[in-house]
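INFO batch 0412 | record 1 of 1 | parsing
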Amino acid sequence: MAATDKALAGLRQMIASGQLGPGAKFPPEPELCDHLGVSRSSLREAARSLAALGVIESRHGSGTYVSALDPAEIISRFSLSVELIPLEGVLELLEVRRVLEAHATAAAAARQDPELAAQLSDILDRLESTTDSIEIQHLDAEFHGAICTAGGNPTVTALTSVIRGRGGHYRIFEPGEDFAAIKQTSDRGHRAILAAIARRDPSAAATAASAHIAQTELWLRALRPAPQPELPTG
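INFO prediction complete | emitting tokens
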């Protein structure tokens, strides 16, 4: 095992076992190096790897600490790797998204937030009135993100956001002969989701969400678009 891998494995074990819990300060470098049997350079390289994953954080003038180990925050870092996945892998991820968003949409309907339906309706009014592909992508993400947030599980929200972010690079809402059909089908799917949420019907909400995302999978399999640069924000 390479020295850096040995250091990384040792740090991970200390954190996973609870020896260094959330918010805990790391022991001094010499003590850690002695404990793990590695050099300072290997330890620092391992620490940088964990910092990139959101597992540890350095505080200027104070030292190195284990982060809060918030699942949503750690999962959000997956986007660095997920954004490298090609279309076939994205299609597999969409199956995961379909399951997660069906659950989140059912939870949103069950929680009965009286403001959610109005919020979603406003988003759909704007979405249905535009044919601009970039605006469609942004509003679509806003719609699904709002539902996942309302579902009440930040980890599910973070994971679906990561998957949706990569899926957004494979754009189906582009000018062409299929655009009108895709847009109309997508709009109907969104309205079915909203109707189920407004009725506070978790079962129907889950079914509508699953069917809508399955339709997106079908379009992606049929069109097989090339990945595009990240959409501009704002």
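INFO post-check: The chain has two domains: 3-66, 73-223.
INFO record closed
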